Amino acid sequence: MDKSYSSATEADIYRSWEKSGAFTPKIDKSKTPFSIVLPLPNASDPMHMGHALFTIQDILVRYHRMLGDPTLWLPGADHAGIETQFVFEKKLQKEGKSRFDYDRQTLYKMIWDFVEENRILNQFQMKKLGFSMDWTRYHYSLEPKIVDNVLLTFKKLYDDGLIYRDEKIVNYCTHCGTAFSNLEVVHKTVYSHLWYIKYGLLTVATTRPETMLGDTAIAVNPKDKRYKNLIGKKILLPLVNREIPIIGEESIDIKFGTGAVKVTPSHSPEDYDIAKKHNLEFIRIFDYDGKSNLNVPEKYRGYFPSQVRQMVIDDLTAVGLIEKIEDYSHEVGHCYRCGCPLEPITAPQWYLRIAPLAKPAIEAAQNGDVKFFPSRFKKAYLTWMESIRDWNISRQIVWGPRIPAWYCLDCHPDIKLNFLDKNKNIVTGFYKDLKDKYSFEEIKNGLQSLIAPVDAKYIVDCSSKIENCPNCHSTSLLQETDTFDTWFLSGQWPLNTLGFNPKDPSKSSPDFAYFYPTSVMDTLWDILFFWVARMIMFGLYLTKEVPFKTVHLHSRVVDAKGQKMSKSKGNVIDPLVMTEKYGTDALRMSLVYGIAPASDFVVSEDKIRAQRNFVNKIWNASRFVLMVVDKFPKVGASLAGAQITNPDDISILTNLNKIITSTTSDINRYHFGQASENLYQFFWHDFCDIYIEKAKDRLDPSKPTGEVGEEDVVPVLLAVLITSLKLLHPFIPFVTESVYQILREKLNLDEAQLITASWPEVLSF
RNA sequence: GGCUGUUUAGCUCAGUUGGUAGAGCGCAUCGUUUACAUCGAUGAUGUCGGGGGUUCGAGCCCCUCAACAGCCACCA
After folding, report:
1. What is the 3-state secondary structure (H, E, C) of A247-262?
2. How far apart are CA A271 and CA A244, in angstroms?
3. pLDDT digit string, tens, across residues A547-558
4. Is the CB of A680 under 7 A from strand B?
5. Closest nucleotide to residue A221 (Cα to C1')?
């Protein structure tokens, strides 16, 4: 053995595990399985420290495998719709291109190829980190079977009356060109102003003067004595000269501003509700590209909101209608992806009626069918779930499965189309205006997007085999160009990767019957609502069972300043670089050692180095033990026959039993930080510093007072070492397996590999 | 606005049935013809955020204040 541990053998060890079939469980109905579905990494995302924290799952998996449970850890990758398209568009931008230069099929193919390279790399990287995943069961979110199932789920939801289209106010990013769900909105404090604008009979206060071009009413509280007698009257909207009514609305805060609110139904969520209630007119001014292309006086047409704002303020000032301007800060929704302010806008979108799915998901948490660790996340989950609103599942991007709904162009000539003609020029317009000029094929082949009126009829068809409109028999059918929110797909991940059969659940695969519900879902809390909650809802909806019995939320890696690591901040520590430098075991140990559950923690090179030293300590203690074994070849290796009377032996074996008990219970309770810290202390301090140092004297005949105690010492050394290796294996699999193989060869040990060896039980001596 | 965390040695942080304060890194002194300098021995530094309470006893339970962080949220 070399003087210090080298991680160069890691790849060989991993290969031998994989080859031995240790990662692939055998279904044994007499045993209770243990299963974890990996929180699928984004296929476009290179490995970062967050992924390295899958170590937690590997610890659980390796522990259960050693307990003898049929253990499955199912790996996969997610196409990650918006995330990936955003990354790809940035790449396009660098090349001087944009998404508008391609029809959707071409764009899709380009993104596919872009992702594929990294997706393969991710698998290699996860192997580098020692993760004992069952690669024979690997899945990718865009593989046909997974997508088929997702479409069938959509169909079932539709048949159950839970899917609808509606043209509500949505969170729309004009930069990314898509709507988002509420969860994807990032609220930021914006320091702005409150403009007081004279509207004839009264003055309104607003943070968004530019939207006045789309005002269709003024609302006051009917209890407001100042304005009570104005309700029902009309005023002339400045700059636009449109007559709009003054209405009474109880939700208006009398104390805020002037107590009078301009109502812009198409560009403000609150105003939208008011307008629905009072049957007001909806006038959109901003189009999906963010510009004021619609329904505004000619001079304001074609500008972004900030530009329109300045023009409006200037013009109002010129005619003396700005009464005053106050400083004001408020929360404004921003795009979580690109950071731009979102434009509230009315747009037709696909919604999932969520209340019927949320109800059982709430009950499952309340009655303990699904448990949360740490338990405080149960409250967060319930709070969110209890105030959940319908989920906008449609995204106006190409990267992802399209919603399987088909429109008939001949029934709906007012469908708006964007496509590239055969000369690659962008054409935009209503079908009725284009159909004489372009063939259906040309439109279909060059299609970028379509927008169907909210009341358009559609046919839901998962097989994509539909050819004729059932109404008019036209063959000019186009599929919805909206794609699914990624989480709609990944929300069904545990089901679909395990072989759930949505057409006939009783015909689901043996894997599904055996491993579902899975044992633990381990992830970071930042996707508790995005993903964990959705999986619970889908799982219960489709199978009446929770997808996992326990949700374990792990810690978050931050940099030395406590900030989340991100490429843009330039503060990332690349786990694979650390692996190269200090070995995988050192990295893994540093990610769990002494860390409290679900806390933020700093990973630094110092810490990794410290754990590298620990790994080396194990290596060298093993060298010492082997040296002793060589020196006393006649001494039996088994503890079974030895008489334990020496206080040093009794002491170390007592401590060993304690550490067996505590490690087992700590892993069972997800106290990985505690478990690893105790093991570290036991091995380094109790075993190396105390026991081995004393053993040296006991084995040295030249010491005048020393007794030669090899009959006891050798078996104890071996028992403690081998047991420690087993206990440490889930945390630091490579060095432990490496040492074990050397010991096995020398001592003819029964168990072929540590990865499948039995978990230690308390010794009697 | 609602909710949740955090505050312990110079730094980063452990510390769940309440019982004489811990680790890693760093620091100081010494040691080592060896399993390991990726080492060993010894040592220093803490009114466990402030205040109050419960208790024989509180870092740990309760109340309160403060600072910091995060999550959720359609109020102009």
Report:
1. EECCCCCCCCCCCEEE
2. 14
3. 999 999 998 888
4. yes
5. B76
Distance A36 CA to B18 C1' (A): 37
Domain ranges in chain A are 178-344, 404-481, 603-756
Look at A432-436, A564-568, A585-589, A663-667 and tell me which has the smallest mean pLDDT: A564-568
How many of the other CB atoms lie within 10 Å of CB of A181? Answer: 23
Structure token digits, residue A190: 């914006």
Give, in Å, how far the C1' of B7 lies from the CA of A563. Answer: 18
Question: Region A141-155: what's the mean pLDDT?
Answer: 96
A201 CA to B61 C1' in angstroms comes to 62
Cite the DSSP H helix spans in A516-601: 534-543, 575-582, 584-592
Whether A518 and A494 have beta carbons less than 8 Å apart is answered as yes
pTM of the model: 0.94
* pLDDT (mean) for A102-115: 95
- A289-317 burial string, b = 16+ CB within 10 Å, else e? ebbbeebbeeebeebebeebbebbbebbe
**Hey, what are A130's tokens?**
């020692």
The runs of H, that is alpha helices, within A199-354 are 269-278, 305-318
> In this structure, is the CB of residue A269 within 7 Å of any atom belonging to strand B?
yes
DSSP assignment, residue A47?
P
Q: Which two tokens stand for residue A287?
A: 């189009």
Helix (H) or strand (E) holding A344: strand A343-352
> What's the ipTM?
0.94
Alpha carbons within 13 A on the beta-carbon side of A398: 20
What tokens does A696 get?
């040296």
The pair phi, psi for residue A520, each rounded to 5°, is -135, 140
For the domain made up of A178-344, give the CATH fold.
Isoleucyl-tRNA Synthetase; domain 2 (3.90.740)
Q: Name the phi and psi angles at A146, rounded to 5.
A: -65, -45
CATH level 3 topology of A603-756: Isoleucyl-tRNA Synthetase; Domain 1 (1.10.730)
d(Cα A78, Cα A541) in Å, to the nearest integer?
Answer: 22
Give the nearest nucleotide to A269, CA to C1'.
Answer: B74
Alpha carbons A164 and A354: distance in angstroms, whole number: 11
Beta-carbon-side half-sphere exposure of residue A630 (alpha carbons within 13 Å): 10
For the segment 270-309 of chain A, residues whose CB is within 7 A of strand B:
270, 273
